[in-house]
Task: inverse folding
């Protein structure tokens, strides 16, 4: 069932009730939070294989130059095509089977694979699955996460109605709110982000978690510094 973005936000932040009723409901908040220590079984979100990247502008013969440098988000070191761990990895080519226009991309989803180039050795290839454009030109800071509406509906706040996945890690938690205001995106991009979550999709964002005192206890709001919208395959 699709939920209108405005309705989703109302559910996301919970309903404000009288103090007495909120106190009674608040006794269940800890139990609700504890129940979110494991991801929902039906979640199809792939939390692994996310990279920032930059083009290789060095002046030398291809394929030694002219590819891209990729860096796994939320990790100090990235596993390269030759098996080594580096701050970032050079790959000579991008295998873009879906014909995704990456000219506006800020984040890539895929994997680094070994590939031997005759006369040059293993320079690697990036197998692209999806790509994402940033909502604004600003560079994202903080943790990179995936945010999903988990379908929980509460009668008070905080309501841990969002599943938060730490990208490239096996870490998960429930949170009670999402704050996209600091990103400063256009209304169009904000509506795209809200609709994505409301329709059951996963919003990729970077930022930090912040504890927030709400009606019935302490909630956790993810404050985004940037968020990323998927680029449709084949769109030029």
Result:
């Amino acid at each position: 069932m699709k939920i209108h973005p405005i309705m989703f936000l109302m559910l996301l932040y919970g309903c404000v009730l009288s103090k007495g009723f909120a106190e009674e409901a608040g006794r269940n908040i800890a139990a609700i939070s504890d129940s979110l220590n494991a991801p929902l079984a039906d979640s199809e979100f792939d939390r692994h294989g996310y990279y920032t990247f930059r083009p290789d502008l060095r002046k030398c013969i291809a394929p030694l130059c002219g590819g891209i440098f990729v860096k796994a988000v939320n990790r100090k070191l990235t596993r390269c095509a030759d098996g080594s761990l580096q701050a970032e990895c050079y790959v000579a080519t991008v295998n873009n089977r879906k014909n995704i226009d990456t000219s506006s991309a800020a984040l890539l989803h895929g994997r680094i694979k070994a590939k031997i180039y005759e006369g040059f050795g293993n320079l690697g290839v990036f197998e692209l699955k999806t790509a994402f454009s940033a909502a604004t030109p600003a560079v994202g800071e903080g943790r990179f996460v995936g945010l999903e509406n988990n379908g929980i509906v509460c009668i008070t706040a905080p309501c841990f109605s969002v599943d938060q996945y730490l990208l490239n890690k096996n870490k998960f938690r429930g949170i009670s709110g999402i704050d996209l205001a600091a990103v400063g995106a256009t209304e169009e991009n904000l509506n795209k982000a809200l609709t994505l979550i409301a329709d059951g999709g996963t919003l990729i964002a970077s930022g930090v978690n912040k504890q927030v005192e709400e009606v019935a206890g302490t909630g956790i709001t993810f404050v985004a510094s940037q968020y990323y919208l998927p680029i449709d395959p084949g769109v030029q």
Observations:
- The first strand starts at residue 50 and ends at 55.
- The chain is about 15% helix and 40% strand.
